[in-house]
Amino acid sequence: MLADYFDFVSMILKHPVTGRNPRWSSGMSQKKQYSHSFSALSSQLRQFMQTLSIPLYGTGLDDNHVTLAAGSVDTHYTIREVEGIDNHAEVLTSPHPYYAANDSASQWIWEKANGLPAGTGDSPLIRTFVTTFDLTGYDPSSAVIYGTWGTDNQGVDIRINGVSTGISLPGVIVNNFSDLHAFTISGGFKKGINTLEFVIEDNGSLSAFRTALTCDADARPDRIPELLTMLLFAAGVAGLVFFRKKTTKPLTERET
Questions:
Q1: 65 lies in some domain
Q2: What is the pLDDT of residues 71-87, one digit of tens each?
Q3: How many domains does the chain have?
Q4: Would 255 be classed as within a structural domain?
Q5: Domain termination site, one of 181, 199, 216
Q6: pLDDT, tens digit, for every residue of 101-145?
Q7: Cβ contacts of residue 133 below 8 Å, gap of 6+?
C-alpha cells in the first residue's frame, strides 16, 4: 500500500492541476480556480482507486507476469497431493501438439516438466493445483475472477476458499486441452488471503493443466480514511503550488 501511495503522489506531481489553467476563463476567481483544482484531485483519486491491481497469476508466469522458461518451477502454484517443499508445479518442456499453444497469459504446467506422473483409465490420477491472492483493502463481495482453463484430461472442479464452484471440464476428450474454456467466479471471496484450487484428473499417459486469470474488485469502505489522507495531502500540495504561483512574480517584473 505504501507503494500505491507514492504512485499517487507521483501522479499528482507529474500532472499538476493547480494554479491557473489556460483553459479557464481569465475572469475566474482564485477561489473557483482552487475549487476546480480540488475537484480534479478528487477525480484523480477515484481513478487511482479503480486502477489498483490485484496480483493473481496464470500458470507458467513469473512475479512480473512474464512467461517462464520451459522446465522452470512455477512458484505461484503448489500441488496439494505432493508433500514436502518440492510441491510446486513445473512448466512443461514439450507440450503435446494437440494442446492449445502457450501464450503470454499462461502456459501448460504439471507436477513434473515432462508431464508425469500420469494416471490410467483404471487408476486415474488426481492433482489439485493451488494458488492464492490477497483481497486486503478490497470489498470481497465485489470481487470477480475471469479466467480460462484447459486440462489433460478432466477438470473435476474449481474451488474458491475450499468451496466448489461447480465449474468443470468432464470427459476424456480432446476438446478439454485443444481449446481453453472460459469461466467466471463471482462469489465465495473473503477479506485477506483467498485460495483458488483446480482439481484435475488424468486418465492417460501424459498430464497437463493450464489457466489464465484476472481479478477485479472495488476498494473496500474501510480504506476511505487512508485514501482521504492521501487526498488531503495532495490538496495541501495543490494549495502550496497555487500560493506560490500567485505570489511569485516573473523574473522580468522583479528586475524592473
A1: no
A2: 999 999 999 999 888 89
A3: 2
A4: no
A5: 216
A6: 999 999 999 999 999 999 887 889 999 999 999 999 999 999 999
A7: 54, 55, 56, 193, 194, 196, 215
